Amino acid sequence: MDIVFNCPNCDQELASDPAGAGSQIECPTCHETITIPSNKGTTGSIPATPGTPVTAAAIATSAAAKQELHLKVPVRTTPSESLIAKPKPPLEVVQKGAGKRLLIRTIRHASCIESGHDKFDEKAAAFLQEVGESNLVATHIINYEHFDVGLQKIMTDYGLLIIYRG
Ligand SMILES: [Zn+2]
Fold first, then answer.
1. Is 100 helix (H, G, I), strand (E, B) or coil?
2. In this structure, are residues 7 and 31 in contact, taking their beta carbons and an 8 Å threshold?
3. What is the pLDDT of residue 90?
4. Which of 18, 27, 74, 85 is surrounded by the fewest CB atoms within 10 Å?
5. Is the pTM of this model over 0.70?
């Protein structure tokens, strides 16, 4: 876990590898020579003088430790948050969404009645199959009113609104 601290000179938030505790570095913002504290996650009152344990200082002064020492300025403001960049989405996902528009298809139940047979499920399933699971963004149930010619009255019916990439 990185040591997060503030530059005692310019208050720039900094993060260092734990191996860097006790060693003196140049602040990347104000170029003041500062000492990396050994206490983790503390911000504010950091002793500017190298009053760190002997072991930590000894390790830090060795050539190997200095090579491993990476000083970085966190991009984000919250110290508790991970300073490691979040992994990018897999290339596969990017490719699937790339170059495709968001489209909407509304399938009304009433329009799926053929010769008295309810073909709604069949038609909805066929369309979803055509779109493919990877291009499917969302589905919504809709309710609507329509005038039924046969029954001569206004009926409430349902349908499916499909949002997909294509
Ligand atoms: Zn500084």
1. coil
2. no
3. 60
4. 85
5. no
